[in-house]
Every structure is written in structure tokens, then in C-alpha cells.
Design a protein that fits this description.
Radius of gyration: 17 Å
Distance between the termini: 18 Å
Number of strands: 10
Bound molecules: fructose -6-phosphate
Strand order of the largest sheet: 1-10-9-6-2-3-5
Number of domains: 1
CATH architecture: 3-Layer(aba) Sandwich
Structural class: alpha/beta
Shape: globular
Length: 261
């Protein structure tokens, strides 16, 4: 069962509070192991995590990172490639060593075997300690769109029309959003030692309800988190608005035992 935390306050207050809680989880791991391995999501959702972490007196220079996914087909150096986004929003913000941060397909090898090489690199690093996740309206985590196998590994996927429309905000025209991507699989994500999933806003409410409380189903790829023993879900009120057991989650969080604070 996941720990579901519904942050009160305005959307901005809830995002900031969620960012601090996710940063707490990452800080604990990095203090125990300065070369911890982080799983890195892109998109808008994790931004409060990086800003919370950046404001802490924590040496992240030995931390290693693996991005969840990357578009296929953007010109190299495109500002919306996830390599560029990760460099700008994570590596530069947190002072990570760029040589220790990987994005699927960025090793210059053939695309057909990029997934296998990425899996081997994650394994060689000893696996991911904390995987930060957002969730798409389609229920995707990483870019595992509906129908993705729970056993899937890093591979090429085709983005849904809904995901391309959602991500069009980062591009000058919707047609510019690539159709294909490389993404860690659900099986890859489930091997991380801990998952921290964040979601904000009403547009995510159905996906969150499906992921946290719905049937475990490839139709809602985020529901794979129900199979993981160590998951924290950080939500604002709007993203939590369709959860059946919201009152229970609030009560459990407000009354968590002292040792869990
Ligand atoms: C990004 C990723 C996606 C996003 C999701 C939500 O690396 O893997 O699953 O987390 O599409 O995107 P935002 O946060 O922009 O709403």
C-alpha cells in the first residue's frame, strides 16, 4: 500500500510542500550514500522537487542519475529534448556531475539496442534508489502508455495523441512533438528501491485515482505502483479529488507514528 499524502493549501503551497517531502526522501538516501542513484522524471511536475533540493546544504556532486525517457527524432541539442531539459532543470540546478547523469539513447549507439544498453547501465550502477515519477492524463508513468506490459523494459514506444497534445505546450507547434520515444519500462521502474509519484491539478485526478485505487491493469500503467512495496504519492487537493479513501489517507498521514515523522 502506498503512503498517499494530500497536501493542503493553495496549489502553489501544495506543490512546494510536496517538493519538500520528496526532497526529504532524496536527502535521506544521499546522506546515507553520497553516490546514490536517482531516477529522474521530466515535465512540469517534478520542478518543485528540484528547487527544494537545490536550496538544501547537501552535496549532490557524486549522485548518479537516470532519466525515465527521451523523445526520438528531435535534432540534437533541441531545447525540449529530455537531455537538454535534464541538463537545464536537474544537472545545472542541483550541481550534479553531467558525466554521471544518463538519458535513454544518449550513448550514441544504435536506437534498436538503446533499451538494452540503458538497462545494462542502470544495472551496472546498482539500480535506482529513488525514482521520481509524474503521471500523464493517460495514466502513463515514464512514457508507458496504456497497454504497456508490467514486465516491460526500456524500449521504443509510440506516444498517444493525448500525450502529444499535452506536451505541445513545450513546442512551437503540436506537429513538432515527436511521435516516438525511448522509455524505461514498467518492469524497470518497479525495480527502483523506492518510488515517489507526484501529481498536481484536476486534470490528473482520474489518472491518480486509477493508479492508486483502480484495478491493477495495463490500461492504467500507473497502477503498477500498487505492486511496489515502497511508494509515496504526493498530491494537491485537486489531483486527489477522485480518491475514494482520501479521508483515510489524510487521517493516516496526520496521525502517522512518531518514528515515521
Ligand atoms: C516525464 C515522464 C512523464 C511525465 C508525465 C507528466 O519524464 O516520464 O511520465 O511525468 O507526462 O508530465 P507533467 O509533469 O508535465 O504533467
Amino acid at each position: 500500500m502506498a503512503e498517499v499524502v494530500i497536501l493542503p493549501g493553495t496549489p502553489d503551497e501544495a506543490k512546494a510542500a510536496a517538493g519538500e517531502l520528496a526532497a526529504d526522501a532524496i536527502e535521506r538516501v544521499v546522506r546515507a550514500r553520497p553516490d546514490a542513484v536517482l531516477g529522474l522524471a521530466t515535465g512540469s511536475t517534478p520542478l518543485p522537487v528540484w528547487s527544494a533540493l537545490a536550496s538544501r546544504p547537501l552535496d549532490l556532486s557524486r549522485v548518479r542519475g537516470f532519466a525515465l525517457d527521451e523523445y526520438i527524432g528531435l535534432p540534437s541539442g533541441h531545447p525540449e529534448s529530455y537531455r537538454a531539459v535534464i541538463t537545464r532543470e536537474v544537472v545545472d540546478t542541483l550541481g550534479l556531475d553531467p558525466a554521471l547523469v544518463h538519458v535513454p539513447g544518449d550513448d550514441g549507439g544504435p536506437i534498436e539496442t538503446a533499451g538494452e544498453r540503458y538497462e545494462a547501465a542502470i544495472a551496472a550502477a546498482g539500480g535506482v534508489d529513488v525514482q521520481v515519477l509524474g503521471i500523464g492524463r493517460t495514466g502513463h508513468i515514464g512514457f508507458n502508455e496504456p497497454g504497456s506490459s508490467f514486465a516491460s523494459r526500456t524500449r521504443v514506444k509510440t506516444l498517444t495523441a493525448a500525450t502529444r497534445a499535452d506536451n505541445a505546450r513545450f513546442f512551437s507547434s503540436p506537429d513538432e512533438v515527436p511521435r516516438h520515444c525511448l522509455t524505461q519500462g514498467l518492469g524497470t521502474i518497479l525495480e527502483a528501491r523506492a518510488l515517489v509519484l507526484l501529481a498536481f491539478g484536476e486534470a490528473k485526478a482520474d489518472a491518480v485515482a486509477g493508479a492508486v485505487e483502480g484495478p491493477v491493469s495495463a490500461s492504467v500503467p500507473g497502477s503498477a505502483i500498487q505492486l511496489h512495496p515502497e511508494v509515496t504519492v504526493l498530491l494537491d487537493e485537486a489531483a486527489a479529488s477522485k480518491l475514494r479513501f482520501a479521508d483515510y489517507y489524510r487521517d493516516a498521514w496526520d496521525n502517522r507514528p512518531d518514528w515515521a515523522r
